[in-house]
Design a protein that fits this description.
heterodimer; A: 131 residues; Glutaredoxin; two-stranded parallel sheet; two-stranded antiparallel sheet; 6 strands; 28% helix; B: 57 residues; mainly beta; 11% helix
Chain lengths: 131, 57
């Protein structure tokens, strides 16, 4: 299933261009870099800091129906773990196909143990995870 | 330092449509991102906010 990653900051598209073309770490960037200089979209997602005019480190996963499924917001000084982002993203796609299953915390990719909640599993999650 | 943010969207909520101007490093051109277009094309979207260009992401 198709997915697009879009980065957003309150810088303009001109600054994005200048940064991406001057910083060698960004030479291989393939995703569009979006500009939110008014902070309108950052405010909508609750990441706009009125004290600084900057957006906090927020990550949001939206499904093809436009529904918000995950959000993670870190303060300025903590970077995000991309492996965890990809785990959440893969889990969302998997569960959108297998709607009766849920992905436990240790789930990493398709084929890993999932759970199918039912009355029989109540109080037996340990056994279900081992099985 | 405390951040002053308003409440955002709720999980499970349909995200209101929005558009943003973009810079696309692949083409080197400016463009636009539209949530409505994403939904029309049945695409998933990951939005990745960060404080500022020219700093550590």
């Amino acid at each position: 299933m198709g997915c697009d990653l879009v980065t957003v900051s309150t810088d303009t598209q001109y600054v994005h261009l200048a940064w991406q073309t001057s910083e060698k770490e960004l030479a291989k960037v393939k995703y569009p870099m979006a500009a939110d200089p008014t902070g309108k979209v950052s405010r909508m997602f609750g990441v706009y800091d009125e004290n600084t005019g900057l957006a906090l480190r927020g990550t949001f996963i939206i499904n093809p129906e436009g529904v918000l499924l995950n959000q993670e917001i870190n303060f300025y000084n903590l970077g995000r773990n991309i492996d965890e982002l990809m785990r959440k993203f893969k889990a969302n796609i998997y569960m959108s196909r297998k709607t009766s299953e849920v992905c436990p915390s240790k789930w990493k990719e398709e084929g890993d143990k999932t759970l199918s909640p039912s009355a029989k599993m109540v109080g037996k999650v340990h056994e279900a995870l081992q099985g | 330092m405390m951040a002053e943010t308003a409440y955002g969207l709720k999980l499970g909520q349909k995200v209101p449509d929005f558009e943003l101007t973009t810079y696309d490093p692949v083409t080197g051109e400016f463009g636009a991102f539209s949530l409505r277009e994403q939904l029309k094309n049945k695409r998933w979207t990951i939005l990745f906010f960060y404080p500022a260009d020219f700093t550590f992401v």
